[in-house]
Amino acid sequence: MWLADLMRRRGIRREETVAVGDSWRDVPMLEAAAVQVYVGKVLPRGLTAIHLPDGDIRDVARVIIRP
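Below the sequence we write its predicted structure tokens.
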């Protein structure tokens, strides 16, 4: 999976990673990140991401920068 490979090459821990996706094809990328934000209409089965179906960038940013 490309995100996990990139994290390993850069020395980035899972706990430092956020991923945002909008389709079932993004599930492997989302699962590699500690914070997962899904902006598609229907959350894929088994994915426990934060679901923001409207995909408002302000809401996504709030999730990313929350303390």
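Residues 2-65 form one domain.
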